Amino acid sequence: MAAETQYTANTGTTQITAANTSLTGSGTLNTNIWMLVRGGSNGTLVKSITIKATGTTAEGMVRFFLFDGTNTRLVHEVGVLANTPSATNPAFEYTLNCNMSLKANFEIRVTTQIANTFNIISDSVDWNYFTPSVRQESTNFTANTGTAVINVANTTLTGGTLNTNIWSAFTAGSSTTFRGARIDSLIIKAQGTTTMGMIRIYIFDTTNYRLFKEIPVPAIVQTGTEKAYQYKLDMGGFSLKAGWEIRVSTEKAETFSIVVEGNDWRYPANPAITNYTPASNTAVTTEEILHALQVPAGLFSTGNLMEVYSSLTFTNSANIKTYKIYINTSNSLTGATAIANYRPTVNTVDNISRLYPVINDTTLEAYGGTTASISNQYTANTGTSGNVTVPSLSAGFWVLISGQKTVAGETSTLRWSMVNKLF
């Protein structure tokens, strides 16, 4: 995390009561399988989970699953001891130390083998970044939790056929957004009885398979009181190139959940986009784009203040020169939204300076001017302000600065321009 990381408590609580013997996560939500905690927008750090019985317990099992919105994967089992609480004997209790990064909108779900009552409580926090003070060298992480189920025998050490006898368990974020993925752990969890065999882990570089690790599987008979085989491979923050994958196969035709805990990383976008190359209108009197500044995705969000600044030179005359600022999804005036209009006449050097509060992802507030030469997007001089609907700011956009002359022979130059995130 970066120094500017901000945390918000996301304490998960639920109570489980009804018996569920499934190791696949089947069941009815809030009837015999319960949601404990859901991942926040950047991810959620689940530090620990506490199981606390509220009465007598029989020997059994509490199971934890990862739900990705479609699939449910068994992640961990905790054995429950037979116990009768009293004034001097506490009810069954167990704390599972996780330190697991949970991907946005993924859920941890939980069941009990025996119909005893347990309170399940997670110590977990969402994280975000304090955008006004995020330095460009700060590393920003986004949780990337990978999952797969493998179940077809594959004896080769050179790969296999995807989704037939080898499965993709994790894909590092795209290079268009991220610099790579840091992988902390890989969890192997059997969904039943196992015989001696092998789990094989490969690095897939989008073309080639490279055998990376082999994990021996012991023979274990799974029951309602005996946990199925489980192994957690500490990856030590292994750095995987953007777009590359971890793929996994099994020597024996036995079913295993694979869960990969990772975080994609990137660095904050430069808060200023500039162009210091002078651009002049041609001899024509039609409107022309002088500077086009491409703003990357994710730079602006609700609550920020956007500044657009341009330095101008032009012929000193009573003939109007018009400069406009637009926002568009492309480098084109077609379909662009005007957010400022400036009409200087008798000066030779001047500037356009505008501040735009970001109301939400598609709304800027544009301040109206008090004279006809400094006006808002509607070229009105009311001195008021109005909200302007613009393309999605979070998706990235273009700021276009145009110039237009009324007399072809005069000069009209945009010396330099800047789009800046003030906070």
Brief digest:
It contains no helices and 29 strands.
Could you explain how this protein is built, in words?
The protein is an all-beta fold and about 425 residues long. It has three domains: about 1-135, Sandwich (Jelly Rolls); about 140-270, Jelly Rolls, CATH 2.60.120; about 270-420, Jelly Rolls (Sandwich). The protein is about 0% helix and about 55% strand. The protein has no helices and 29 strands. It has strands at about 5-10, 10-15, 35-40, 45-55, 60-65, 70-80, 95-100, 105-110, 120-130, 140-150, 165-170, 180-190, 195-205, 210-215, 230-240, 245-250, 255-265, 270-275, 280, 290-295, 305-315, 320-330, 335-340, 350-360, 365, 375, 385-390, 395-405, 410-420. Strands 18, 19, 21, 24, 25, 27 and 29 form a seven-stranded antiparallel β-sheet that branches. Strands 1, 2, 4, 7 and 9 form a five-stranded antiparallel β-sheet that branches. A five-stranded antiparallel β-sheet has the order 20-28-22-23-26, with no helix packed on it. A hairpin with a 2-residue loop joins β24 and β25 (about 365). Residues about 370-385 have low confidence and may be disordered.
